[in-house]
């Protein structure tokens, strides 16, 4: 496959010539007439499962330590909250969102399957595409936004080397939403990211480890220098609440929802990464890594912004919340260059962890004949980096970003359905080879599990008025905004309950197994037949299923 072939370390295979159509993988679990490729297959090879406790900590540090999280306080304190309230929201919000992340990582950790495959068990083979496309859409948007922030870091790096770079005249119209200088920086950073997309996910742990060392040191140095110059933490820490009563509650819930929204996508597709874990136990370390990494970067950002007020003679409302605003005040070219390199590394690692690999898995499942992980990441780079035009999004009034953030009303139910199905309905008993067969037991009715569809309707609908009001505050919706305000959890928790109850009352017997059947448990040389249920029969069961008994009557 030439340039688009992902090499496995230690695998001495001859590269095949490039072709648009990917070669059929002999290891596929899918039937002969169903096209798939190895990037969708379970990671049964122990050499592919290298993520231990340390990797998971560095993974979340790689995901969290970026400019967007550094400026978290800018979305909380201006709401009228104190620093202590902001920190409390950060801790609670990340602890709460870590629960579905950990729970939905279990199919990947135990069965070694990615999210697009795991979603078929609960939603149906074809209805799962709705969740897959929704998740991919958000990945593209956030990939572009993260790349834009990386471009700002590139501007700092280039002006440190060539000071005249900061004075490049703008030749673009104001309606473009970006200047000539920043467009050049954006393009260069976009190019710098590309080589990382050719790495195997197991090789990325070294990039995560490098970021774990470099970026925290840069954050501490930036924060420490400002606090030293200010002679203390600055005025934000002594600022009282400016909202009270109902307004205080609404501000608190708004911030709480925003913190959950940051990771709502990973709460759905965490199996994309947990499939590489050394053991199922290792993924539980995320329960500490998520809130700790988020708390660290948020405190650094708040302290730096607060100290910037007296250091640079700013009004409280003009505090520098973005690290690049602070760096514009520096004259030490070496410090600017090293800090900019650290922030570029932060942007690349965050884009890989939260966006490119996730959307690549989605694209692989949608077009396995033509797309593998590498091609999927490159497609993300093109669509997310250019088709989404993030500079236009960020230069707008924020309405579109409000909609994207509010899209958690869909992601919450998606995550809830996945959790309920794996733990409460199927009780961890998935038949992995059947997940790769569109005519298998997870076809349900025409490829759609109507229980999942009904759950989405019942749990998304109550949140739609709140989303409409968030986009256009002039539309009055009454007290129902209190249901929308907490964000993710008002979709997640009801979806868990509704989906479970629907399956209790209307069980789909064909998918209820006594225990899980993994890729290692099945002798694929025995072709199954179809029974009256339209699913694989019990004939030659001992040969076909090594470890499971279907309980449909």
Polypeptide structure, described:
The protein is an all-alpha fold and 553 residues long. The protein has helices spanning 53-64, 67-70, 83-104, 106-111, 115-123, 128-161, 180-193, 204-230, 246-269, 271-274, 286-311, 323-327, 333-366, 373-387, 390-395, 399-406, 408-425, 450-460, 464-471, 481-484, 489-505, 541-544. It is globular. The two termini are 47 Å apart.
What is the CATH architecture assignment?
Orthogonal Bundle
Q: SS-based structural class?
A: mainly alpha
Stated plainly, the CATH topology is called Hydantoin permease
The major pleated sheet works out as:
none
Average predicted confidence as pLDDT:
88
Report the count of strand segments.
0
What's the gyration radius in Å? 24 Å
| CATH top level class name | Mainly Alpha
The ordered string of helix (H) and strand (E) elements is HHHHHHHHHHHHHHHHHHHHHH
Oligomeric form:
single chain
The residue ranges in which pLDDT falls below 50 over 5 or more consecutive positions are 1-12, 528-553
Count of distinct structural domains: 1
Overall geometry: globular
Number of helices: 22
Strand content: under 5%
N- to C-terminal distance: 47 Å
Helix fraction by DSSP (H/I, runs of at least 4)? 55-70%
CATH superfamily, please? Hydantoin permease
Family: Belongs to the purine-cytosine permease (2.A.39) family.
Subcellular location: Membrane
Transmembrane segments: 51-70, 76-103, 124-145, 185-201, 208-230, 288-315, 335-357, 400-425, 452-471, 483-506
Pfam family, one: Transp_cyt_pur
